[in-house]
Amino acid sequence: MFDPTTYASRALTVAAELDGDDKVARLRETLETIGTDVVGENPRPERIARGRAVLDEAGAPVRNEIFRPAQLDDTHFMRFVIVDDTLPDGTPKVPDNRLPPMLVWECNHDGDPRDYLRKAVRKATSGEPGVHLDFDAVFGACKAYPGMRREEAWIEWMMDHAIRAEAFYCGYRGVPKAKVDAAGRVHEVIRAYLDQHRQQVSAMSEADLRRAIVAHARSMPDDLRPGDLEAAPARGTGFFLRKWATLVLIGFAAFLLLTVLLPVTIWWYLTLRKHEKRDKPALSNRAVHGMPDLIAAEDRIVQNQLTHLVDLKPGFFRYFTQRVVLFAIDQLARVIFVNGSLGGIASIHFARWVILHDRREDIPRHRRRDRLLFFSNYDFSWDSYLGEFVDRASGGLTAVWSNTEGYPRTRRLTEEGADDEETFKQWARDRQIASQVWWSGVRYSSVENVNDDIAVHRGLLADLEPAQVTRWLQRI
């Protein structure tokens, strides 16, 4: 039986300091080879023409035989990013206070992180022909990296460098990758069946059409429907318990706010307004659609990715406010926004915010630079994605990033800010960083497609009312 708690989608973020300029340079070459052939095929001719493929001395494209994310089971999306604290022209962001370069591995996977890592390292070191998962070639550039051959030490090193997501959202939370793939394949077969019998099925009633589809699904070969076909509950008892628990927690928080915490809240609000009046939004002389290297890497498949990095504003007050806002978003994403839409935005597969803490002990605390790192895997264009944020969730957007450097002028935490759309987009683009490697496990499916596949798969053997049958057929 399907258990959504066992297969809950997770956000694993591993960040480690890189060890020396020479290793960083070699790592860039390695990631370039992986990134230009991430699915393990010879690069397409158009990529060669655009200079987006790594070529050997003879001018032939180099095939990626280093790391193929698709070979890691239970993985939805993945990326490797070098965070080197420089501007696009290579100059340090803060010349007199530069942070060391880091490698960040971000993946969205199913199950317990330790179990996921254990399966990954065992597959990588199995010696099985055709397996290309050389973690050493990537993480070997990091300080104190133990290597894959020491399994337990490797897992502990990874977990020691894992950073908890302050807020995490999934467009199909709780659905394992195997179920996503199975649902997509079954949906394709059903559509092919309907196309082949178009004239026959067009004369059927909805009830008869559903019976014909279910009968065809039962006759599918086993290799076309891995796993069971029973309806997996989208929301079990645990969901409703969490929802009610969250409502009770909100009610209790409101009671405290009106009694014990009211003076503190007033102090917080007045302090916030003082900070907002002193803020100096940064200006940029680049156009919103600048950053040609980033643009060249976009719009290749149905999805795009965004990696965004910005310094938090200094001081405990801003840090505390940032943590509270992200905690609230995380709770909403766990309990309320569970139907493929985050605040009305239905194009996000996975998104997370993590704080990169400045751990340098030789730097005074007031000079340390904590940073907010945002990862998103989303559908369609960068411009439409940012536009949706502005149109549908500008308040939440501003609540998060108003605590970071250079954000457009904000009032009362959630007002203005992203409402200045062009300034916001320019700010966002200027602080976007390139992902050297990015891989999608659903390259040709939008969030809507994936959720339709899941709904069709779940509804095959479910006991549906006539109105539910109508909605189910519409999703096919």
Please provide the count of β strands.
Answer: 10
Beta-strand percent range: 5-15%
Instruction: Return Rg in Å.
Output: 24 Å
Question: Strand order, biggest sheet?
Answer: 1-3-2-10
Report the principal-axis shape: globular
> How much helix, percentage-wise, in residues?
40-55%
Number of helices: 16
Number of domains: 3
Helix-strand topology string: EHHEEHHHEHHHHHHEHEEHEEHEHH
What is the mean pLDDT? 86
* Major sheet description: 4 strands, antiparallel
Q: What structural class do the secondary elements suggest?
A: alpha+beta
Low-pLDDT segments? 1-6, 44-52, 226-237
Task: Report how far the terminal alpha carbons are from each other.
Answer: 24 Å
Short account of what is shown:
This protein has helices spanning 21-35, 45-49, 113-124, 135-139, 151-160, 177-196, 198-202, 206-218, 237-258, 262-278, 292-296, 316-335, 382-401, 421-430, 447-459, 466-475; strands spanning 9-17, 75-83, 102-110, 167-170, 303-311, 348-356, 371-379, 410-411, 415-416, 437-440. By secondary structure, the protein is an alpha+beta fold.
